[in-house]
Specification:
The chain is α/β, with parallel strands linked by helices. It contains 13 helices and 13 strands. It has two domains: 223 residues, 3-Layer(aba) Sandwich (Rossmann fold), CATH 3.40.50; 102 residues, no CATH class.
Length: 374
């Protein structure tokens, strides 16, 4: 299995020429908005609809918290040595369906920090996130594309926070989409939807897959002629990561009621993070990719970097008059390749401008762990 989607030539020919279009009661082409990740489940959902003659428009919602997207931007390689890609784009290309990347960050901070239905085991507001995305699709995309309904690759019982009947009902009710969400992989195990009632979708061709296993989907892919697809796996969202959760909770605790920005929460994905004794923050890049990405967060504070030695770029966030600032310089020097017992100049910068240099003795190894946010 790879990080793209490939289908058998016979299936491609069938999709392109052998299926009559499904029409609504007014003689118009039935069209669906597919919530598409590029993974196996949403790929199969799209195929099942296309095999019914339904026109499928794929949309991939961008929140800024996709783990695969972060790995792609940092240049990290997959275990097989290939590069990470935007799976929705390459997957839609393999299926030959149009795809739109939709930025849904507006309003997402409230979803993240004040979820109506709470967090999961980390800081994952999964129900509220689903409501946010589907609500955006309803408000902005259904009319724009002239679509009749929304489809997803959800499987009943696969994810306990969002893919149980009760939660599905809540999500539909809170978005005003009651009866307008079709889940082709498991719909026959659920209630009848409006598209089924109106004949836009044939319920007899919808499936009854349930549970957390993937054997049924893998067999279905084989039966349909899907030759290659991303390895089915979870953990694609930073918000489900326990370490990221600790960092976000720490940030919320130390904002003292001040409003969070996207910079505040996105920078938590990078480097080593420290909450210093007086409450100020230090982010230390782990590698060149971290250092390069940290430069985008200059609005949060000042950069620290050892002059004349290889090492990290650090971002100091907080009061420069605090003793934490000198400690931040010492931690930055500790992670450089400078001599452990020799004072070195640490540059203080705002963007690329050097404001000052501070002669600094590196902190002894491991002493910084007392302030590290795990």
């Amino acid at each position: 299995m790879s990080n793209t989607v490939a289908i058998h030539p016979a299936l491609k020919e069938r999709l392109n020429s052998g299926i009559p279009p499904r029409l609504d009661e007014d003689g118009n082409q039935v069209r669906a908005i597919l919530m598409y990740s590029g993974g196996l489940d949403s790929t199969l959902a799209g195929l099942l609809l296309k095999l019914q003659g339904i026109d499928v428009i794929a949309v991939n919602m961008f929140t800024g918290f996709c783990l695969t997207d972060h790995k792609r931007k940092t240049g990290k390689l997959r275990p097989d040595g290939s590069r990470y890609q935007n799976e929705a784009i390459v997957g839609a290309a393999g299926l030959e369906i149009p795809v739109e990347i939709v930025d849904v960050r507006e309003g997402y901070l409230k979803v993240l920090t004040e979820p109506t239905y709470g967090w999961g085991s980390a800081v994952n507001p999964c129900i509220d996130c689903r409501i946010h995305m589907l609500g955006h699709a309803k408000r902005e995309l259904l009319e724009e594309y002239g679509a009749h309904f929304i489809a997803t690759g959800e499987v009943l019982g696969q994810r306990p926070m969002t893919q149980m009947k009760r939660q599905m009902k809540i999500i539909e009710a809170d978005t005003g989409l009651e009866g307008l969400v079709v889940r082709p992989l498991c719909q026959s195990a659920l209630w009848e939807t409006i598209p089924e009632q109106k004949g836009w979708v044939d319920r007899d061709q919808l499936l009854h897959i349930t549970g957390r296993g993937r054997k049924a989907q893998i067999q279905l892919a084989k039966d349909l002629g899907v030759l290659d697809y991303p390895q089915p796996a979870g953990g694609c969202c930073f918000l489900t990561d326990g370490n990221y959760g600790k960092r976000l909770r720490d940030t919320i605790d130390h904002k003292n009621g001040a409003e969070l920005t996207f910079e505040d929460v996105l920078v938590l994905k990078l480097g080593r993070q420290f909450r210093l004794p007086d409450g100020n923050k230090l982010v230390v890049g782990r590698n060149k990719a971290d250092n390069d990405m940290l430069k985008a967060y200059w609005t949060l504070g000042h950069f620290l970097e050892v002059r004349g030695h290889s090492g990290p770029l650090s971002l100091y966030v907080g009061d420069r008059e605090s003793s934490d600032f000198a400690l931040g310089c010492r931690i930055t020097a500790r992670y450089s390749d400078c001599p452990a017992h020799e004072e070195v100049p640490v540059k203080e910068m705002h963007q690329e401008e050097v404001l000052a240099e501070h002669m600094t003795l590196p902190l002894p190894r491991d002493e910084e762990n007392a302030w590290k946010i795990q």
